[in-house]
Amino acid sequence: MAKKVDQALNSGDLYRVFNSNYADPHYNDYLEAMHQYNQLGYTPADERKKATMLSQLFAAVGVGSYVQVPYYAMWGGRHVYLGKNVYVNFNCTFVDDAEIRIGDNTMLALNVTIVTGTHPVSAQLRRQSYGFSKPVVIAANVWVGAGATILPGVHIGANSVIGAGAVVTRDLPANVVAVGCPAKVLRAITDDDEVTYDHGKVIADHRLE
Q1: What strands lie across the sheet with 72-73, from one edge to the other?
Q2: CA angle 119–182–86, rounded 5-degree value
Q3: 45, 92, 133, 169: most buried, per Cβ within 10 A?
Q4: φ, ψ dihedrals at 14, nearest 5°
Q5: CA–CA distance from 107 to each of 103, 112, 195 (Å)?
Q6: Those residues with Cβ within 8 angstroms of residue 54's Cβ, 6 or more apart along the chain or in another chain
Q7: Longest dimension (CA), the chain
Q8: Phi-psi region of 194 (alpha: psi -120 to 50; beta: other; left: phi over 0)
Q9: Which residues contact 165 (CB under 8 A, 6 or more apart)?
Q10: d(CA 53, CA 60)
Q11: How far is 194 from 203, CA to CA, in rounded Å?
């Protein structure tokens, strides 16, 4: 049953959101576990407990990945895959009806929202509680700025930067800076970005060791 439900939720096909065919008997358990995770503090014991719980809450958690409390997820994170060394800042929200895959070394700033579930424009279909979901993929080494929103079905290429407050409505390529609502490519990331930062400051002259 679980495999059938996951296939339906990742298919992009319409389904009745409250239909028991797409329910999981453990759904409330996932949310309760997320609630418990969000109550943990920062003592060494709590940090060890976070690491254990996170690997149970999320579909996959790579070595070195960390999720600040609180986070919020429709399925508690059950459909979220984190690569290695992923950092998720405070108050991030995952509408993880379909899969969300986040690559190695990616950083999500505070208040980022990643959405996979949506509804049709047709009012008639919405009255019948139809919805559909599309997976989101964020590649490795991406930085998503504070308050950005990633919408269903979006793929973001490796090394790209998404500006604060951006709303990403369609795929973005690798190695670009994208900003705005809807997000558009502002510029390419080039070799100059390995030499200067913050409007022309020379990295070698300002890097603290």
Answers
A1: 72-73, 93-95, 113-115, 149-150, 167-168
A2: 85
A3: 133
A4: -70, 140
A5: 9, 10, 21
A6: 37, 61, 65, 67, 77
A7: 61
A8: alpha
A9: 145, 146, 147, 148, 181
A10: 12
A11: 8
Peptide bond into 70 cis (omega under 30): yes
Contact between 126 and 110 under an 8 Å Cβ cutoff? The reply is no
Mind listing the pLDDT tens digit for each residue in 37-86? 999 999 999 999 999 999 999 999 999 999 999 999 999 999 999 999 99
Q: What are 59's two structure tokens? A: 């579909």
Model confidence pTM above 0.90: yes
Q: Locate 65 and state its tokens.
A: 């990945």
6 — pLDDT class (breaks 50, 70, 90): confident
Torsion angle in degrees (nearest 10) through CA of 155, 156, 158, 161: -170
One-letter identity of residue 56? Q
Can you tell me the distance from the alpha carbon of 4 to that of 22, in angstroms, rounded to the nearest whole number? Answer: 8
Q: Amino acid letter at 71?
A: Y
For the stretch 107-129, pLDDT in tens is: 999 999 999 999 999 999 999 99
User: Residues with catalytic annotation?
Assistant: 119
pLDDT at residue 4, as a whole number: 73
What tokens were used for 147? 């308050």
Dig out the tokens for 160 from the structure: 């790209």
